[in-house]
Fold:
Amino acid sequence: MNRHNNLSLCAIMLSGLALLSGNAIAQQAADLEGVKAASRAFYAALAVIDDGEAMESVWAHTPYVTYVGPRSRSITVGWDAQKKHWVEVNKRTSQRNVTLSDQQIHVNGNLAWEMGQESGTVKFTDGREGTVDYLVTNVYERIDGRWLTVSHHVQPKPK
Structure:
């Protein structure tokens, strides 16, 4: 192979690498936007007081999903337990207004996690009201092209 052919081959290879890295960057941006959309959907579903249908649309229906709430004494594991949890919580709740701030997201393949701070208010059916001031970790998994919640863990901020 002569020098001209070598240079041409190098130029083609570099162009290919540039296209591949450009595609990877575009995919990372698309994944990040997908996770942000899944997060927005989760918090929109959290505001809905229903028979659990809103949460059903944002959670993966797998045996390994997990939930730890601010007053949890154990880990809720599996979609069936999750669904029961949200039905019971919604029976005791008349209104939830929760927002996420200081969102930190990392995507790695088909998994992503976000940490942040939840704040807001909750009204209960017995008339009590509460303040939401939590640290949160949410984990999402891309399943069949959709980012779905697979873990939600909140804890009250230390006083």
Remarks:
- Residues 76 and 124 are 21 Å apart (CA to CA).
